[in-house]
């Protein structure tokens, strides 16, 4: 695990938001590609020991990514990321929600909006993400589900992928 002193995960219970900032030692285009291409997302977008599989990916405004995080025992946790706005290699916004394998929304679990921004740094790329939930209770639900630990581990997998891609 690489310690990143610029990594931040800040949950704000009052506003129902999470702010994540993480730096990567890779060019912005490569970090962008890892966030927007299914073949690359499948290699990192789940905390160990889970893996990711894509059912469908349509990266365009109004398109979506339907995917599952898969546990070692085969249990699948499905979700959909709907791409609301895209500003190539600078950022995108999404609406995210849990679903079933067929793509039907799971209304028993919270949905969120994500605003993901990419910027060059002296040593690579910084990704800043604002995740907003409809209520503090929805935020509490995902925190209790392990969101902080899961995101930390997931971003470590992205770091490992980027190291392989830049080697």
Automatic annotation (TrEMBL):
Q: Which Gene3D superfamilies match?
A: 3.30.530.20
Domain Activator of Hsp90 ATPase homologue 1/2-like C-terminal: from-to ranges: 26-162
User: Which Pfam families does the protein's record reference?
Assistant: AHSA1 (PF08327)
- InterPro entries linked to this entry: ASHA1/2-like_C, START-like_dom_sf
Sections of the chain in a coiled coil: none
CDD domains under this entry?
SRPBCC_CalC_Aha1-like
Query: Taxonomically, which superkingdom?
Result: Bacteria
- Give the family per the record: Belongs to the AHA1 family.
Output this protein's name. Activator of HSP90 ATPase
Native species: Primorskyibacter flagellatus
Taxonomic lineage: Bacteria, Pseudomonadati, Pseudomonadota, Alphaproteobacteria, Rhodobacterales
């Amino acid at each position: 695990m690489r310690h990143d002193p610029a990594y931040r995960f800040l949950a704000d219970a009052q506003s129902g938001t999470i702010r994540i900032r993480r730096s990567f030692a890779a060019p912005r285009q490569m970090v962008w590609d890892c966030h927007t291409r299914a073949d690359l997302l499948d290699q990192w977008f789940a905390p160990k020991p889970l893996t990711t599989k894509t059912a469908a990916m349509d990266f365009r405004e109004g398109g979506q990514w339907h995917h599952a995080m898969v546990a070692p025992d085969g249990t699948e946790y499905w979700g959909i990321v709907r791409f609301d706005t895209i500003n190539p290699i600078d950022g995108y916004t999404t609406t995210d929600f849990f679903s079933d394998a067929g793509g039907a929304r799971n209304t028993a679990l919270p949905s969120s909006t994500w605003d993901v921004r990419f910027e060059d740094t002296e040593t690579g790329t910084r990704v800043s993400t604002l995740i907003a939930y409809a209520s503090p209770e929805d935020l509490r639900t995902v925190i209790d589900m392990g969101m902080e630990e899961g995101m930390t581990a997931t971003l470590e997998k992205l770091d490992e992928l980027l190291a392989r891609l830049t080697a």
